[in-house]
Amino acid sequence: MTYLVEMADRRPQGYSNHTRLDPAFHFFLLPVTFLTLVATVWMAVKHRDLTSHLLALAVLLLLVEVLMNRMYSLKVQDRVIRVEERLRLNSLLPESQRARIGELTEGQLIALRFASDAELPALAARAMDERLAPADIKKAIREWRPDYFRV
């Protein structure tokens, strides 16, 4: 099923449509867990017994776990993107600029992944020199390199 969703979502990307929602997470898992927490807290307030309070605590733990799992997967994805972009920059930047790759922040590296190979060297230099914010880097991209493998 995930494969079908990914294939259907392979339209050209740009700044206005590069973000991605995961329907199972954003429209089912997160809202249902949050609503369950609200219901169990309401039940704990209404009934004021140990079982109701423990159930509310268990659902709160579940909500924290759901959010942490999402944050952890995004952090792993960001780490992989950083490695990929450092390798890419190392192969595309002129020798004189390679020593400066370490100046790029995590956010800048993640934003630069959308730049085409042709515009990456100039945009990376601008990002380093002007300390561009990730959103400004994405807005400056003219030839968007899509990323269809995001979590």
**What's the rounded overall pLDDT mean?**
90
- The succession of helices and strands, N to C, reads HHHHHHH
Task: Give unreliable regions as ranges.
Answer: 1-5
Tell me the helix content.
55-70%
Notes on the structure:
This protein has 151 residues and is mainly alpha-helical. The chain has one domain (23-140). The chain contains seven helices and no strands. The protein has helices at 2-8, 23-47, 50-92, 95-98, 106-112, 120-130, 134-140. Helix 3 packs across helix 5. The longest helix is centred in the middle third of the chain and has 43 residues, at 50-92. The model is unreliable at 1-5 (pLDDT under 50).
Annotation keywords:
single chain; 151 residues; mainly alpha; 7 helices; 69% helix; 0% strand; disordered N terminus
Write a compact overview of the structure shown.
The chain is mainly alpha-helical and 151 residues long. Helix content is 69%, strand content 0%.
List the helices and strands and how they pair.
Blueprint: H1 2-8, H2 23-47, H3 50-92, H4 95-98, H5 106-112, H6 120-130, H7 134-140
